[in-house]
Amino acid sequence: MSYPYQIKSMEEYQDAYRLSIEQPELFWANIASHFKWKKAPYGKVLNWNFEEPKIEWFKNATLNITENCLDRHLAEYGDMPAIIWEPNDPEDNHRILTYRKLYDKVCQFAHVLKNNGVKKGDRVCIYMGMIPELAVAVLACARIGAIHSVIFGGFSAQAIADRLYDAQATFIITCDGAYRGQKDIPLKSVIDDALIGNRTVQKVIVCTRTRTPVSMIKGRDLWWDDEIHKVETLGLHDFPAEEMSAEDPLFILYTSGSTGKPKGVVHACGGYMLYTNYSFVNVFQYQRGDIHFCTADIGWITGHSYILYGPLSAGATTLIFEGVPTFPDAGRFWSIVDKYRVNILYTAPTAIRSLMGFGLGPIQNHDLSSLKVLGTVGEPINEEAWHWYHQHIGKGRCPIVDTWWQTETGGILISNMAGVTPEKASWATLPLPGVQPILVDEQGKEITESDDDGIQKGNLCIKFPWPSILRTTYGDHERCRTNYFATYDHLYFTGDGALKDADGNFRITGRVDDVLNVSGHRIGTAEVENAINMHAGVVESAVVGYPHDIKGQGIYAYIIYQGNHGDENLTRQDILQTVTRMIGPIAKPDKIQFVQGLPKTRSGKIMRRILRKIAEGETENLGDITTLLDPHVVEEIKNGRLV
Ligand code: PRX
């Protein structure tokens, strides 16, 4: 069975797109009519300007997203699996939560939150591994109207402390530990470190997963199971869903930008629900009963939108996988596809490239015939990886959706729709209905010129709001304005460069700002530099990206070091430790080159363009370097380049 707003042909796509541009309010009001509202949308659908920015969708309507993700499915689909959970170790038992079971657990945990004083609008930090309780915690926050801020399990205590402070969080939900492949990450102990000096957090709920010994602080730390037991003893079951304005914040998710400090991107209840559902159903062409497997972590936006909210609001079966693609062997994804007869597989190019490296052996002996649709997200997919995915995983019969979007966009903005609109290897292709992308030059003027092949090239902007656009950056609206809406007048600037062909297809070429994309994770160069500079011996540093076969981009750091060098490799290890402490292992530079000086303009600005070229291996055409304060440093840097 399909959905009434599911697009089934190119003609339907064109009609929907046309209507969404000509009458956006009517278009989205029609979609909204298929959801469960407490107070139905009426009156003005959209208020907006990109100057402040102010964006309000269905301002007068009220809802609770969990009624759309849970309650409304119970009568017909109560016994259908909502979540299939596959543990890290394939020898351990998997779990299946039906919609009824998930509903019960979410209500129970909402009671736990309420009993412990959590109220609508409170910020709750969630730092857990990929277990069903993570989904329960997220949804229970939404049920009670608390704003969740999920932090990926790979972030360090310092990174968590910064996020707790920024959100003024009062509550934390965590686990004793998390399994990731062969690693056992001591989550609670990281939280303990993050809480040193914290003044806002009142309680920490700890869910048991790894049985790693933890220290529990009296009056602050509580066990998940004990709290559930109390709710059971009190005989509490259903939990009435809090009435939320469509514009109330649903969650905060921190992401890196070109400045040093991560930003808390805020999404609103109504528009986010509508758009994640609409894009999920259309891009993946989900059919009731299909098994959807998104391999992302719920700590990133992909997990929020396409493991949890999009699929669950559509009554889908979503698969949550605790482990990593290469444990216990590189056939892990394929054995999961086989075991559960997965129909939709959504993963990242970096995972595909790393699995390609293991050859075809790990695929053999796994039946992949259940697959109908493949998807990629997070970074540009190179043609080689695209063809490998298409041929060896999709066996040439599954469309691949190359989905372009961002933490800030909430959902997929540019992508083909599986089997409905044409695919083009390494192109994200066409905008979804409601999305109006344009390419501009450095001055913000729309690109009109094409090259001989009919290709246009420019900076990617969006000129009209879609329902799941970010509303603000938490606690600092001005930051939201300057980051996204001030580069070009009246436009949302994505930070990406793109190409557009004569048929209107887009190909995203990568970031044009100082943001790196390492294994599909966004990392600000300034953030990494700040972390490196914390090391006592470091005078100054500059970080750039360079092409990396598996990660897409690697991190190359040029460092002026004045401490006692001693053993250079030990110093490197020390610096990597510092970065791991300040941010987390994902931000560790792949290469560290010690230098005497950095190429700077006379006004003191680091010429990253030159550093980037050298890191990429281009040592000849560095452009004009005569304007540099000290052109000699370039020679030294070139000579010391790490291969
Ligand atoms: O550069 C683009 C790249 O990932 C950035 C967004 O990162 P993040 O907010 O962490 O969200 C990742 C998951 C949605 C974008 O600015 N990106 C994402 N998807 C694609 C992509 N680049 C090319 N093709 C894609 N399909």
Rg: 24 Å
For the sheet with most strands, the description reads: 8 strands, mixed
Bound molecules: adenosine-5'-monophosphate-propyl ester
CATH class of the domain at 97-242: Alpha Beta
Uncertain segments are none
In spatial order, strands of the major sheet run: 12-11-8-6-7-14-15-23
The span between the termini is 54 Å
Quantity of strands, as a count: 30
Determine the number of helices (DSSP H or I, runs of at least 4 residues).
18
Question: How helical, in percent, are the residues?
Answer: 25-40%
Tell me the fraction of residues in β-strands, as a range: 15-25%
Question: Could you say what the CATH architecture of the domain at 97-242 is?
Answer: 3-Layer(aba) Sandwich
Instruction: Kindly report the CATH topology of the domain at 97-242.
Output: Rossmann fold
In brief:
By secondary structure, the chain is α/β, with parallel strands linked by helices. Helices cover 31% and strands 23% of the residues.
Structural overview:
- By secondary structure, this protein is an alpha/beta fold.
- Among the domains are: 97-242, 3-Layer(aba) Sandwich (Rossmann fold), CATH 3.40.50; 515-639, 2-Layer Sandwich (GMP Synthetase, Chain A, domain 3).
- It is built from 18 helices and 30 strands.
- It has an 8-stranded mixed beta sheet with strand order 12-11-8-6-7-14-15-23, sandwiched between helices.
- Strand 19 (373-377), helix 13 (383-393) and strand 20 form a beta-alpha-beta unit.
- The longest helix is centred in the N-terminal third of the chain and has 17 residues, at 99-115.
- The radius of gyration is 24 Å and the shape is globular.
- The protein starts with 9 loop residues before the first helix and ends with a helix.
- The model has no long low-confidence stretch (mean pLDDT 96).
- Bound molecules: adenosine-5'-monophosphate-propyl ester.
- Adenosine-5'-monophosphate-propyl ester is lined by residues 255, 301-302, 377-380, 402-407, 428, 494-496, 508, 510-511, 517, 522.
